[in-house]
Amino acid sequence: MLDALKFFLFVILLLVTIMLNQHVTSKRSAEIDLELLWQIQDTKGVYIVPNQTVPSGVYTALEQSMVIGSLLEEYNDVNTSWVGETDWIYRTNLSCLREEYDYVVLTFHGVDTFASVYLGETHLGTTENMFVRYRYDVKDLCDGDTRELRLQFRSSVVEARERAKDRALPVVPMCPPDLYHGQCHVNLIRKMQASFAWDWGLAAPSMGIWKPVRLEYYSSALIRDLTVAIAETVVGTDQRWMVDVGVYLETGLSSVPLNGLLTFKIIGVPLADEADQTLPVTDRTDANGELLVKHRLTVRKDAVERWWPNGFGKQALYSLYVRWEDVAVNGVKLPNPDTKISEKVIRIGFRTVELVQDPATDGLTFYFRVNDVPIFAKGSNWIPSSVLPERSYDANYVKFLLYAARDAHMNMLRVWGGGFYESDHFYRLADELGLLIWHDLMFACSMYPTDADFLRTVQDEVAQNVRRIQHHPSIAVWATNNENEVALRQNWYKTESNFSAYAAQYVELYVDTVQPTVLANDPWRTVLLSSPSNGDHRTEDGYIANNPQDPHYGDVHYYNYFLDGWNAAQYRGGRFVSEYGFQSFPAFTSWPEARSYGQSELSQLINHRQHSPLGNEPILAMIRYNLPLPTDPSNGDYWPELIYLSQLSQAMIVKTETEVYRAHRIEHGTMGALYWQLNDVWIAPSWSSIEYGGTFKLLHVWLRTIFAPEHLIAFINERRQLEVVAVRDTLAPAEELWEVEMRIHRYGSFRPVDRHFVTVPVPANSVKLVPRWDVYGRLAQLGLHPADHLLLLTAYRNTSTQQPPDARQPVAENFVLLDKLKNIRPDQRVKPAVVIDVVSAVCNSQNNLTTVSLKVSVSVPALFVYLQLTPENSTLKQCQFSHNGFLQFQAVRTVTLTCVNPGCRNTIQARDITVRTVNDLLVR
What we know:
By secondary structure, this protein is α+β, with helices and mostly antiparallel strands. The protein has 17 helices and 48 strands. Helices cover 20% and strands 33% of the residues.
C-alpha cells in the first residue's frame, strides 16, 4: 500500500513538473511563479534533496528528507551547525518563450543570502542581501530551449568570517556570548541578525530562496509598488481626504521613454474630482528602468469611514486600483494589446497618525494621536514567527499570533529590528485587526560597517521594503535601529576607546543613509533614529544622547532582574515604554523531551537553551522573593512546579509593571507599554507570552485583563499606600460613574472580613484616581495581620441604590497582595480540594476546533489555579484556557478550553487536565 502511494505521489509530482515547465504562451502582461520542482544539494553531492518548491530553505529541505532531525528538538541547534557552514546549490529546469514581449525579467523577491545565479551557462549576477529583490533580464535566453536555473549558495557563516578579516576598526560585537552557541560577525552581512543566535533564540544560519521567484512578461511598463500619503483638507466648504499616490513603474533594467495613461480608482468610492481619475505620463525611466509618478486624488469625507486602531472603532479598508496603459494600445491596432497594460490593487485606510512630541513641564510628550484621538499604545514586540525565514510564510500561524494579540486588547506591535521585514500577509492582517505597527529597520544591538558597498545595499534594502510596506494604514512610525544608540553611549561592546570613530559610522549609516532613504519613500511618517531614543530632543551631543533612556523624552527600554518585580514601587516608566519584560519557562508539556528525559537530562537541556547571560538566576530570585521555591531537582515534580511558578512570577511582574504604566498616564505622561515579547522561535526559556507552537503562558491569558479597555488598576505604591486607578480607553460616553467595591479576604475563607465602597466619575479615554482607602490602617483597626489577607476589587457601572452590587455585572476586577505569598501564616495556609468536571464538549468538524466547558470546584479559596492538559494530549494544538492562573474565592467557576483537534479525534475528559495551586506548595 505504501509503495503504491509513493508511486502515485511520484506521478503527481512528475505531472506538476511538466506543467510548470511548459513554454509560457500568454499574450498578457504576466507574473509567473516559478514554484517548479527544485533540487537542493551540497556542492560535493553528498546530500541531494529532490522535488522542493519555493519558498524554501536548506534546513527545512534537509528536515523534510530526514537527513537531519528537527532543528527545534533536543540539541539539534548545535548538532546541525554544519549545515550553515556548507555551500549549497539550488537547481531546476526552466523553459520560456519571449515571443513578442519587450521585457522578460527573472525576479527573485528574497534570496538568503549569498548566491551566484546562472541560467544555463550564463551568469546572471550575484545576491548579497536577503532583504533585497534581485532582477535579471532573461529575454534573450527565453528561446524555447530548456536550461538549468541554478543558484550556487555560499555559506553566510563563512562569508561573514571572511569579511571580518583585516579591518582597521572592528565591527563589534564580533561574536555572541558563548552560551548562545551561535555564529560570529552577523553584523557584517545583510541577513536576519537573529539567525546567528540571540538571547531568546538558536543559531540557524539559513540559506535558500525564502520568497517567491517570478518570471515577469510585459511590453511597456510594470507597476511594481504603490505608495500613499493620506491627509485631511478643506476645499471650499467640503471636508476632504487628500490621497497622494506614488506609482513606481519599471521597464526592464534600462532607461527607456514611456508614453501612456495611468487610471486611478478607489473601488466603491467616488472621487471628488472625476478628472483626477486619469493622468497622462510622458517621461523616461532611469538607468535601472524605474520611474516614480506622483498623483493626487481627493475624496469627500462623508464618502468613506475612518480606519481605527483595535478598541477604538472599525478597521475600514478600501481598494485602490491603478492601471497603466501604454499609448500604443489605442494609437495603433496591436495583435496583443494586453502586454502593454499593467494593473495593481492595494488596500488603504483613511486615518491620520501623528507622533506628538510637544513641550511639557519636564521634557517632551511622546504619544500617538490617531484621528485626533490620543491613544495609549498597548501591545508587545514581534520577533519572526520562525527562525527559518521560509517558514515565516506559514499564514495560519501568523494569523493565530496576530489574532491572539488582537484578542488581548492590543492596539500596537513593534516589529523588532533583529528579524526581517515581514510578509505582505502580516501587514494585511495588521490592517484588518487594527494593530498599529512600530517598525524598526533591520539593525539591532550592534555596530555596523559603512563601506560603500554596504551602504549601497542598505539603501536598496530600505527603499524596496519601505515602498512595499508603506501603504498599510497600520504602519505608525519607523525607527532606524534597535538599541544601537544606547549600546554605543553605554559602551556595551567596549567602543569607548574609539567612541568618535564609531559615532561617525553611526551617523553615516542612520542619519545620512537610512533615515533620508526612508523619508524619500515615505515622507508621511516620523522616522526615529533609534529605539530607545530621546525622540525630537536634541542636545549638544548631536545624534547620540548622553542618556538615550531619559524618561522625560522619547521611548525607554526597562528591564529589572534583581529588584522585586512584584513590587509596584520599582517602576516609574517614561513617556513610552517600548520594551520591558521578564523570563519564564515554557509549559512542562511543551517540551517533547519531558516524557523521555530524566530530571537531570531535562535540566541540562533547559540550561542549554537558556541564552540569557544571567542564566536562570533572575527567574529563581523572583520566585524566592515571593513564593516557596522548589529546591530538590531530583524530585519528579521539580520542573513542573518550577515552570508553574516561573509563569506565575512572569505574569505578576508584567501585570504590575504594565498597570503602573497605565496608571501613570496623567502623573508621568506615560502613553505606551509594549512588553517584550509576544512570540518565540523554539521551546526555551524566554520573555514571550506565547510559546512556540501557540500555547499561551499564564501571562498571555492575563493580558486580556491587563490590557482591557476598561480596567481597575490597584497596587501598593512607594509610600506603602493602596493606589487604585480607574481606566477607560473607550471614547463614549464622555463620562461614566463607577462604583468601586474593595473587599478584604482572609486567604482561608470565601467570606470577606470587610468591605469598602467608593463612587468615582471616570472620563472617556483617560484614567481617574479613586479616593484613597487606608487598607493597612483598616487592618490594624480590626487587629488583623496583612500577611493573612489580600484585597479583591470590583467596579460596577451606572450604580443603582435599588440593586445590590452582587447582582450587577462587573466592569472590571482586580486583586492586590498585601504581603508576600510566602509570608502567609500557617493558620491561613489551607489546601483546597479541586475538582474538574466537563460540562460540555463540542468539536466543529469544519474548523477542527474543540470547545470544552469546565466546572472548577474548590473546597476553600485556591490561589492561582493552574490548569494544564496532560502530555498524552500532544496531538491537540494551540490549546487555550479562557482563564488560568486565577484566584478562586468562590466555590465554583466556569472555564472554557479550546483546542485545534485534527479530525476531531480526541475527546477531552476531566482526567486529562492537571491542576496546581500555590496552596499546594505552601502547605508542603
